[in-house]
Amino acid sequence: AEVAREEREALWRKQQRVDVADNAGKIGLTNLGNTCFMNAGLQCLCHLEPLTTYFLCDQHEKEVNASNPLGCKGELARAFAELSRALWQPEPGELVFNPKQVHQKLSQFAPHLFEGFEQQDVQEFLAFCLDGLHEDLNRVRERPSAAISERQAEEDMRLASGRGEEFAAALAWYRHLEQNKSFLVDLLQGQLRSSVTCRTCGHRSRRFDPFLYLSLPISRSMSSVTECIERYAEEEVLQGEEQWCCPKCETKVDATKKIDLWKLPPVLVLHLKRFEFDAAAMTFKKTDNRLSMKLSALDLSDYCASPQRDGALYDVVCVANHAGAFGCGHYTACCRVGGSGGAWYHFNDSICSPLTGRNIVTKETYVIFLVRREQNRKPIADVFKEARLLAKRGENAAPIDTGVATSAAVNRKPGRDANSTVDMAAGNGSTVPRGACRGAARRALLRQQSLTLPENWPYPPDLVDAVLDAIAAGAASTTEAEISEGNEAVDALEARLPMVAASSPLDSVGDAASSECAARESEEPPLKRQSTLEAFGVKRHLGGEGGQTEK
Fold first, then answer.
1. Is 409 in a helix, a strand, or coil?
2. Rounded to two decimals, what is the model's pTM?
3. Does residue 352 sit in helix, strand or coil?
4. Cα–Cα distance, 135 to 148 (Å, whole number)
5. Mean pLDDT over residues 492-514, rounded?
6. With the CA atoms of 165, 167, 173 and 175 taken in that order, what torsion angle do they form, in degrees rounded to the nearest 10?
7. Spatial distance between the Cα atoms of 438 and 12, rounded to a whole number of angstroms
8. Section 477-490 average pLDDT
9. Angle, CA 377 vertex, CA 375 and CA 379 arms, to 5°
């Protein structure tokens, strides 16, 4: 316990004091031969402050999943950590870094992206890079079956019946976390609701799916990014060759299809679909009209079909750009250096130069990264300034909460007096009275999600409790049904077994075995009579991470 406490304390100090150089975040990347798409994507990822902090604090080392066959045995995660250190903790005067190690690991994970040193799509690169990092850091060590069985799907439908859509969505999120738990899931994955409604009988099919990014349609008539979001969520009629096979009508019918934003992640990635296939010309054409977008405090709550536990106020922090036509052109990135309030810089491979805010979202904007704003909270410098003033006056207020880390436990230094809080703005370990910043209560930016930390899911705690109770009850009833079926099968098998002749030379062995079995049955019922979950290997998740279970 003492070792664990010391480890937590060391991690806390690391998270609050990440040393960075004067030129931190302003380092260019060497082009290795048509790798501008990779450089632009990596610059965007490395300027997502929560992601960078995670790697600079070496938190990834405790979560590397070297046994995951879908990952790179942790090699990609470690290469990305080295890249993060190179960009944020460079040597004095260093202006350019060679990303050859990340390039090498990504070439092994997704070789098609680098074959022949051809130009590739930055959005596709980002998808494979993030997926590789997720698999390298997946906290699930032993996954269930790759897909939900038909029986499990039917059971989930039964559990969700009549309980409302929020319940069904939370249950779907539980199933997702059974196989996917990583910092990348916590940071970048949200949830969509997809529904199809029969226009003949009105039957509606609904499902909830995780998403990593939103691919938004764009046309020349659009003038803003929010218009793209509205178009994304519009109803679509399925008819002709796209008719839907209605399970109630048992035939193909016209139907309406709709996708809704259900739960938004802390970091939202928007992909503008600027390339559209022209059937007449048999090629892709680019839509290059400029879209307007609010860079700070963009409220997306009106575009969501479900309440957002931590709000939907976002700041744009990174943009990947594409200049030129389909199949060629050049990729660059625009990133804030220093988080949501930092200055903008333009990254053109090895060249880094400052930007003004008016040149961020342009006709070349292709992928946009937004970070959710911590609501109802003042800038940390103002918070501590007010705290010190109130402390001098002897006044008390609500507790200080810096909110950078993934759990509240690391915001207060272990061993500190519960009535004091560390002044992390000053960085000198001084303290101010607990509650010295009135009105600083806020929603969290990031929560570590797992099956054992349901309070961190993007749902109300009482709803999550209801889901977990229903799953436990469903598992018990399913097991009882399996036991009953198993007993019937065993009884039928026993009835068909031939009796061993009394003159058999195995009589003595058989008698000894029978006596031993009888002695056991006097102490405990035979296996086929047991009705506990443990007897049939049904496991429940306990407090450990990494998919650890206990019978």
1. helix
2. 0.73
3. strand
4. 19
5. 45
6. -110
7. 24
8. 56
9. 125
Which residues make Cβ contacts (< 8 Å) with residue 470, sequence separation at least 6? 159, 163, 167, 171
Q: 408-432: per-residue pLDDT in tens?
A: 332 323 333 333 332 323 333 333 3
Q: What would the two tokens of residue 54 be?
A: 């995670």
Confidence of residue 548 (pLDDT cuts 50, 70, 90): very low
3-state secondary structure 221-234: CCCEHHHHHHHHCC
The encoded tokens of residue 25 equal 């975040």
Residue 539 has pLDDT above 70, yes or no: no
For tokens 């897909």, name the residue. Answer: 147
Q: Which element (helix H / strand E) includes 487?
A: helix 461-496
Q: Collect all residues with Cβ–Cβ distance below 8 Å to 179 and sequence separation of at least 6.
A: 140, 143, 144
Q: Which string of DSSP letters, residue by residue, matches 37-66? A: HHHHHHHHHHT-HHHHHHHHTTGGGGT--T
Interior/surface letters 298-310, b for 16+ CB within 10 angstroms, e for the rest? bebeeebebebbb
β-pairing, 431-433 vs 420-422, is antiparallel
Q: Show Cβ contacts of residue 101 under 8 Å, excluding neighbours closer than 6 positions.
A: 79, 82, 83
Q: Which residues are CB-neighbours of 386 under 8 A, at least 6 positions away?
A: 378, 436, 437, 438
Catalytic residues: 36, 330
How far, CA to CA in Å, does 523 sit from each of 53, 520, 533?
57, 5, 19
What the block records as the tokens of 342 is 């930092």
Q: How many CB atoms lie within 10 A of CB 61?
A: 13
Spatial contact of 186 and 372, defined as CB atoms under 8 Å apart: no
pLDDT tens digits for range 130-159: 999 999 999 998 877 656 677 788 888 888
- Is 311 in a helix, a strand, or coil? coil
**What pLDDT is recorded for position 2?**
55
> What pLDDT is stored for residue 236 in this prediction?
95
Per-residue pLDDT at 103 exceeds 50: yes
For 343, counting Cβ atoms within 10 Å of its Cβ (0-12 exposed, 13-18 middle, 19+ buried), the class is middle
What backbone phi and psi angles, to 5 degrees, belong to 522? Answer: -70, -25
Instruction: Name the nearest CA neighbour of 520 among 531, 529, 533.
Output: 529
How many angstroms separate the CA atoms of 231 and 92, rounded?
A: 48
Tokens of 56: 């600079």
pLDDT at 522: 39
- What letter would DSSP give residue 87? H
Q: Among 84-88, 248-252, 434-438, 473-477, which stretch is predicted with the lowest mean pLDDT? A: 434-438
Report the alpha-carbon distance of residue 118 to residue 284 in Å, rounded.
Answer: 17
Lowest mean pLDDT among 48-57, 116-125, 307-316, 514-523: 514-523
Residue partners of 68: CB distance under 8 A and separation at least 6: 135, 136, 138
